[in-house]
Specification:
about 400 residues, alpha+beta, 2 domains, six-stranded mixed β-barrel, two-stranded antiparallel sheet, 14 helices, elongated
Length: about 400
């Protein structure tokens, strides 16, 4: 330890050496933080998207290949599931200055709240709408929203049915399109408006029991419901996007290794600079008895120390970026393009260990190549500073 500190004092002597060392640590730490932030951003997007989808879709979505079906057709489900049947239809929300097409969902609030993480409180004359829809129409709790619907009754064919509802809840799904398009009313009341048969449904949400695995629950559902039904996991509507994000994460992470390699060359440029500048000192120490093995050990220890401080800096920068991304409005992304309004970095221990280990390998591999070059210098050439 004492010999390391002595040699370290030799290399940091002078302002230029200190500045070069600090710049090397900053560049290496920044490059590592770029990769950590990229991985965290991709994982954060996927995690937030999945969380938001599960929040509104429960665990599974069941639809019928025949379109509409009755609630009683799913009565054979095991007792471990929570079933929330939905009557979903299209409607027009009529505002003061504009109209907007929405997806109106007729639900039973009790069953729906049990199956999802959305807390919806409605009755026959009230409606629950998404946050973005409320903002676009400048609506608040207690206001009325008029909907235009088509009826199944022959006498109403060709004309729209206008119904006004009182807004008793404004919810946030976490997904821009859902917050803009989704509205919820009482299912029985919607059936009576549309003139459908009591119990008519075209979608069902299923929540599995906590002691059952996801794969086991999906297998059980697929084998215990009639053939005309299709079971899909809650993320199915965005499966293509989730798969694309996973592919992009791996591709971008591999490409960004170039940034790490460039930063490693900056570190090695510092080592070469010091070796050239302090050559006489090092070779004088060798002439006085410092073994080549100890000198090589010092250089490798120095590279490891630079990596260590760079890793700490990278973690700090990553957390600062996550704070800015989560809490500063300037980092809010357009939800109509990127599905979500806000993102956050999500990194687990494996992500940190993987990125830091790869960066450590890069600096050590290139460092060993450099040391093999330095071994070729003779003691006499070092003392005379005759480097070629």
């Amino acid at each position: 330890m004492g010999s390391f500190l002595s040699l370290f004092k030799v290399i940091v002597e002078g302002k230029s050496s200190k500045r070069f060392l600090l710049a090397s640590i900053l560049s290496f730490g920044f490059s590592i933080s770029v990769i950590l932030s990229t991985i965290g951003l991709m994982d954060g997007f996927e995690h937030t998207l999945r969380f938001s989808l599960k929040k509104s879709n429960s665990d599974f979505i069941i639809t019928s290949r025949n379109g509409f079906f009755l609630d009683t057709e799913l009565k054979n489900l095991n007792k471990g599931y929570v079933l929330a049947s939905i009557l979903q239809t299209e409607a027009f929300a009529v505002g003061k200055n504009s109209n907007r097409g929405i997806l109106l969902k007729g639900i039973n609030p009790i069953n729906f709240n049990q199956a999802t993480n959305l807390d919806i409180d409605i009755d026959e004359k009230s409606i629950c709408i998404g946050k973005v829809l409320a903002e676009s129409f400048k609506l608040k709790l207690g206001d009325e929203l008029t909907l235009a619907l088509s009826s199944n009754r022959k006498r109403d064919q060709g004309s729209a049915i206008l119904k006004s509802f009182k807004i008793t809840k404004i919810i946030e799904h976490g997904i821009y399109e859902k917050d803009l398009r989704f509205a919820y009313v009482d299912k029985d009341f919607l059936i009576s408006i549309l003139g459908y048969r009591q119990g008519t449904t075209n979608k069902a949400l299923i929540k599995k029991s906590k002691d059952m695995s996801f794969e086991q629950a999906q297998f059980d559902l697929e084998n215990n419901i009639p053939e005309q039904f299709e079971v899909q996991p809650f993320w199915s509507e965005y499966k293509t996007l989730i798969d694309a994000v996973e592919v992009e994460k791996n591709s971008i992470t591999a490409i960004l290794q170039i940034i790490v390699i460039v930063a490693v060359f900056n570190v090695l440029a510092f080592v070469i600079f010091i070796f050239e500048k302090k050559a006489q000192d090092f070779f004088l120490l060798r002439a006085m008895g410092l073994s080549l093995k100890k000198l090589n050990r010092f250089w490798l220890s120095l590279l490891a120390l630079i990596w260590f401080f760079s890793a700490i800096l990278a973690i700090i920068l990553t957390h600062l970026f996550n704070f800015a991304l989560s809490d500063l409005n300037i980092f809010q992304i357009p939800g109509d393009i990127y599905v979500l309004n806000k993102l956050s970095l999500i990194l687990d221990v494996q992500d940190y260990l993987g990125v830091l280990f790869i960066s450590f390998l890069w600096i050590m591999i290139i460092g060993l190549l450099l040391l093999s070059r330095m071994k070729q210098k003779s003691l006499l050439a070092g003392l005379r500073q005759e480097f070629r």
